[in-house]
Amino acid sequence: MQSTLQDYSFFHTAIIMDGNGRWATQRGLPRGEGHREGAKAVRRVVEAAPGLGVSVLTLYAFSSDNWRRPEGEVKQLMSLLYEFFQNEKENCIANGVRLSVIGRRDRLSLVLRSAISAAENATRWGGALHLRIAVDYSSRDSILRAISLSERRDLTREDFSGLLGKANNLDDRAPDVDLLIRTGGEQRLSDYLLWESAYAELFFTQRMWPDFDKSDLEEAMSAFHHRERRFGAAPAQAAR
Ligand code: IPE
Ligand code: IPE
Ligand code: MG
């Protein structure tokens, strides 16, 4: 589809990567196998994203509420994250991908924290794609942290986006989401990028995350290009 190949200087796609557990259960496998396959889908999507016009990609990998899962599952997710940051560093450098992590760091293990910092430092000059992974992330908590960073009461939206970036350990401001995708068939936000998604176009798909590939991302991008974003204006005004 032609429109998906358009070159945008800024386009933010965020994905709630859901359905790993169900993918595995449907195949009679332990849930962990779904998470393992899910990591492969991450690689596919990161590879495809820049060619489809995505410049910022924010992936929900572990929510602050996911600590409520059984200890074994949490451990496995943490070790997959560790592997990801260790192993993908070189790939990211080679492909011009800048890697960042948003969310809390203080509850992560020391080894995971250092793998994250090492990957962030090594990839900081990447200009083809900004890949942001949300780990121990809660949008409501990051909004609260941003508020506590401010001493002022007269904040503009721009100011607040800046504080929200800081609250998530980033130098950049929190970028507005253009397209928010959720796989796995659920239609909810699960505490993800609430402020940033104020005018995001939403795309829900039944596809389980481990099955998600380039053609699914293409379909979502194409759906986006058929939407009319109005930002509160009347249709005719927006078209002008
Ligand atoms: C998404 O898949 C991965 C994480 C939340 C860490 P799930 O593990 O939530 O898979 P389902 O929703 O149970 O199928
Ligand atoms: C959201 O999925 C978090 C991630 C994809 C990392 P969940 O599976 O945790 O969300 P709920 O519990 O179904 O809302
Ligand atoms: Mg889920």
CATH homologous superfamily heading: Decaprenyl diphosphate synthase-like
Helical fraction: 40-55%
Largest sheet at a glance? 6 strands, parallel
Bound molecules: 3-methylbut-3-enyl trihydrogen diphosphate, magnesium ion
CATH architecture: 3-Layer(aba) Sandwich
Q: What name does CATH use for the topology?
A: Undecaprenyl pyrophosphate synthetase
According to DSSP, the number of beta strands is 6
What is the straight-line distance between the termini?
A: 25 Å
Order of helices and strands: EHHEHEHEHHEEHH
Mean pLDDT: 95
Under the CATH scheme, which class? Alpha Beta
How much is the radius of gyration in Å?
18 Å
How many distinct helices? 8
Q: Low-confidence segments, ≥5 residues, pLDDT <50?
A: 1-8
Q: Which structural class should the secondary elements be placed in?
A: alpha/beta
Strand content: 15-25%
Would you mind describing this structure in some detail?
- Helix content is 42%, strand content 15%.
- The chain is of the alpha/beta class and 240 residues long.
- The radius of gyration is 18 Å and the shape is globular.
- The relative contact order is 0.19.
- The protein has a six-stranded parallel sheet, sandwiched between helices.
- It has one domain (12-239): Undecaprenyl pyrophosphate synthetase (3-Layer(aba) Sandwich).
- The longest helix has 24 residues, at 71-94.
- Helix 4 links the parallel strand 3 and strand 4.
- It has helices at residues 20-26, 31-48, 71-94, 110-122, 139-149, 157-167, 214-225, 235-239; strands at 12-16, 56-63, 97-102, 129-137, 179-182, 201-204.
- The structure holds 3-methylbut-3-enyl trihydrogen diphosphate (2 copies) and magnesium ion.
- Magnesium ion binds next to loops.
